[in-house]
Amino acid sequence: MNTLKRYLRLYRVLVIQFLKTIMQSKIDFLMGLFGFFFTQIMGIAFLYLVFQQIPSLQGWTFDQLIFIYGFAQIPRGIDHLFTDNIWMIAWRLVMSGDFDRYMLRPMNLFFQVISEKLQPDALGELLVGVILVIRSLTKGILITDGVHIVLFFVSILAGAFIYTSIKLFFASFAFWVKISGPFLQMAYEMADFAKYPTEIYAKGIRFLITWVIPFAFVAYLPASFFLKSGTSAGIIGIECGIAVVFMCIAYALFNRGTHVYESAGN
User: Fold this and answer.
1) How far apart are CA 192 and CA 202, in angstroms?
2) pTM as predicted
């Protein structure tokens, strides 16, 4: 318990210091926030244009797809906000030897990486996701039952852990190959498939995004529990199980990588 309190106190101190640095350039902060917000709006506009020509997609209505789209953005935004610095492992920290500074401190290495910065740009993703989910609720999609509300937030949290675990898994390969950014980028971009029903994809792609890189469990599959009557709540349980398993695998790989890490020049 004392260790937890210590890390929470350290996290608060480190985040406050980081926020002071980014507020030195308020224009950059606002431009980044607007950029992510604009990107999400363009995705919604594309979906709207598609539905101008196709009234439904594999039986899914526009309002239902808007809910899935918004539902996907919330866990992604949470992951983006709190753990975006993992990207730096994949692209720079190992290659440049900057990871040395983490190794020299008497603190958990993963904690140091994620606490080094927040990514305020993620607020654009979170804002769009919340707006779309609220809009869907006004269009007849109901999450009023107490159990549904609890499962909604459990699913959001589990989805964020899945995003983080996938990111950490591919970033950790940098300890062996020095730069794993291209592999992480390729895997992470598959998350865009999760914004739409998996039925529209070929079997190979469905298997890939469901069981290999399980982005389907951060959006479409748990969202279907709230959209389709008769869908078992077990889908949320499976999502939580996948989040735990993948996080354990990713953290084990990261931990192993830190043991084989060599500073720059070796």
Assistant:
1) 15
2) 0.86
